[in-house]
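PROTOCOL LOG
Step 1. Enter all chains and additional molecules of the complex.
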Amino acid sequence: MSRWTRTLVQVTGAVTVGAMVAACGAGGREGGGDETEASAVGITEDTVTVGAHFPLTGVAAPGYSEIPTGARAYFDYVNAQGGVNGRKIEYVVKDDAYNPTNTSQVTNELVLKDEIFAMVGGLGTPTHSAVVDFLNDEGVPDLFVSSGSRQWGDDVAAKPVTFGWQPDYEIEGKIVGQYVAEHMPDAKVGLFLQDDDLGVESEKGVRQFLDDQIVAVERYTSGNTDVAPQIAGLQAKGADIVLGFNTPAYTALSQLVSMKLNYRPDWYYSSIGSDPGLVGGLLSKFSEGAVEGSSALEGIMTSEYIPGVDDPNDPWIQLWQKVWDEHGEQGELTNYRAYGMSHAYSFVQALAAAGENPTRESIVEALEQIDSSAEGPQLAPFRYTADSHLGISGIQIVEITGSGMEELTPVLVTDIGDAPIEEDASGQGDDTPPEGGVPGAS
Amino acid sequence: MQQLLTTALTGLTLGMVYAAFALALVLIWRSTRIINFAQAPMAMVTTYVALVLIDAGLSYWIAFAAALLAGLVLGAAVERIVIRPVEGATHINAVILTLGLFIVLNAAAAVVFGSQYRSFPAPFGLRGFQVGEVNVALTGFGIFTIVSVLVVMGLLVALFRLTDLGLKMRASAFNGEVARLLGVRVSGMLTLGWALAALVGSLSGLLIAGGSLVHPAYMDSVVVFGFVAAVLGGLDSPVGAVIGGLLLGVSLSVVSGYVGSELVALSALLILMLVLLLKPGGLFSHAAERRV
Amino acid sequence: MTKLWSNTLLRHVLLALVGLAVVILVLESTSAFRNAQLTTMAYLAIAAGGLTVLTGLNGQLSLGHGAFMAIGAYTAALFYQGAEPALPVVGVLAVAILVAILVGAVVGVAAARLHGPYIAGATLALAIAVPGIALFFDGRLGGEQGLNVRVPDAPGWFADLLYFVTAHDVTTSKYIAYIGWLALIPTFVLLANLSRSRVGRTWRAVRDDEVAAEIAGIHLGRARVLAFVVSAACAGLAGAVMAMAVRITAPSGFTLVLSLTLLTAVVLGGLGSLSGALIGATLLTFLPQFVTGLGADLGLSDLQAAELAPLVYGLTMILVILLAPAGIVGSARGWQRRRRERPAKAAASAA
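Step 2. Run joint prediction.
Step 3. Record the structure below.
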């Protein structure tokens, strides 16, 4: 009798669990079947839903977590002016803590539960690599990935709906490599790289010009904050200049450890890791104010591809400041927020170009055909065509000074592979924002 | 040569921190026969207390003292409220309890303090100094680390060996029944043991945080290394804990510098297994192991 | 009918068939997102089932089962690197189980000599050491970025069979959900049988009183290693399913938190109870969303609300250990037993 009861309890338990779970999903659509309305997912009469994954927590959060706040402010600004073709933009951001496993799970949620029309600006090379195939399989436009890996745009056949945005690490590596080869031909060069595609691609670009000058290559794993072995390695090989392709926290950490080891080479940090305000803040805190803010970064070289907050007279920065004052949350406009606004701007541009009734297919087409001379904050034009979904084509090398950034080169453009490096003649860097700050159909 | 020196010095400084943490574990083990896996998040919480005070503008030293005080209070509170009910019961329950505490403290810290990586100041400077051609990777803060751990150890030794209170604590740990018969307030001694252990744990938390990034999970791997150090030295021996910590710190630094920092955790595991299989009592103890 | 129930194997198989029917019902009537969640529940339950057997029946507390999941996951991931996997799904799962068994045997032998906090600490070290190995061999194992898993489409015969049974088509997330649950059911049948068999009794004997067990002729070491190997195999299988569900295996997916999460599931459900493992896995899969929603309603920010879930189940774990150490299922059974014994006791005291 007792066995009956127990087994009955177990069976009832199983059925209850099953029913409970099924009840949760009641009203959900059938798994699979036809997708006649697939390309209109995420779009209604008056809204467009987009989303992205960002590291709101974790080791990559310093700096990067501000990007979505900038994008959100710009979307709110556009919505306040009536949206795009009468549709307001809804922006869903989920935290993946720069952890590729989490990225996979939150992207699942974004695509299957929140049903986004497109992903805009998903951040991170290791993180986004985890979901790019899924997004392409599901046909979700994957626009303006916040990462400089070339894989977002160099193989359109394999990834037809993914688009890069910022200059890729390979072209940054090339341009920096050429600069160092020309101005410091006898220097011993060391590389400080994140141990993933970010590092691999940067190294490839740099080696095109500096192969025989490189004496040391050190890699760090994101998440492990002890970089003493790497810096000690660079010091041991006697590198006179170190090129760092890393996230901002690691800029601060490498500077800190170099102080500890009394190692004073010249430094170049990739644009993704070099915001003086952020890094200076971290350093200042570490040393109880002994190391004063951005003075720690003086003399360090980096690159720019959109205007930075150190130049308040730039018309784009004035627009971003206005947007931030009207719609931003607490805190100041920083370079990361400007980055967020810049790619939000590009999305609005693409959405407008996609027509009165945009679909997932039409926005992808619109981007491939976008007029690359259209105004935008980027300093060099996009490279979007039917064969390449790579983004901004060039950078400008600058040096951090006490009062801002000093330009060391003009805007230089190139492409992946063997393409030559040239000065940009398109005038993209000189354009101004449109009236009202919202791009129309271009 | 340079690399060897740097590696050794880094290992020494780090080893001191592991020694402090191991000491905390040993203190609790001696008094209540429990391994407090929650020691790591407890140290993290007290470090956050210090961070809050520093952000509010107070000096590092006030925050330092506050963190140690918070450690005392937290240790006593945890023993009284959470651990008291399971003292003497099966091991598994106590271990699971400390693990539950581990999860709760981590999550609570994230809710209250936020999960951002924050930088934590380090007094006495972060610049290494040079002797001739050789860079000595010992910063002012590193020296402070070594000195403070030694001072705390000395104080504890003095407490245990030279004071009445220390005698009572040792008696309670050695044989609670007899101690009670002799008039010792055993339960009070146990609470005090946990409080002191948590204080030492807070110290190690502050020392690890200095000049580094702090976030709710930053102490998580330390509990494993601290445990290995404590086992290496012998769970019953405070001196062993310190020596174990130093040995472990230097060994792991060597692995990190010469082989790869990814294998540090694996090396710690291997050291642990070697000790447990060859001399389970640790280097300094006389407990018998279980024969299977 | 009672005779039917009293045969252990038959009873478990019948339960399994009922379970299968429920699974099909649920999977077919829920959305793709729910399917993904159910897959998570399935692999957590498999790992939890193995852990509850090890810890509950055999008394060895392992905090390193995340490491065995990692081993199973990476093994499976290596098969799914290219477009055409070398083995069908069943084969991949089998290889993952095998590798986990091998490593489990090695670790089990070492762990058999340890007890209480020592085995906890050693397995804790294992949990953080294994992901480091993946980082070290980053050429083969993808490093921090991990290995992407290209899950193959459902084979033709499966799609046809599913259509025949349910008149629905198959999607990728549903296919993986089926893989998860079709792996879960036989695993639980096996574990339940083991639990009721002589092997299970041996494990319990070793847990309860080593000396008596040895006197009774039980080889302690062998029993412990066997328990460890079985649970490691379950974790390996769970990891392989996880690799397919999450579509990536990276060291960051196998943190300490995963191992502690498994332990929580097991403790909440009740140590030693398979239905408890299932309940624990359900809670872990569905509670976080519920709690996060609650937190957002209470006014917490998104990030804070997300941390509320581990806070809640950590607190629950502590309360369970303090107040109801037998977990949900154990307490329910105890209450049931006391109810049954009350008339008997009353009769005895009246007599």
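Step 4. Note key features.
The interface with chain A takes residues 2-3, 6-7, 10, 60, 110, 115-123, 125-130, 135, 137, 139, 211-213, 215, 256-257, 261-262 of chain B (CB under 8 Å).
Residues 287-292 of chain B have pLDDT under 50 and may be disordered.
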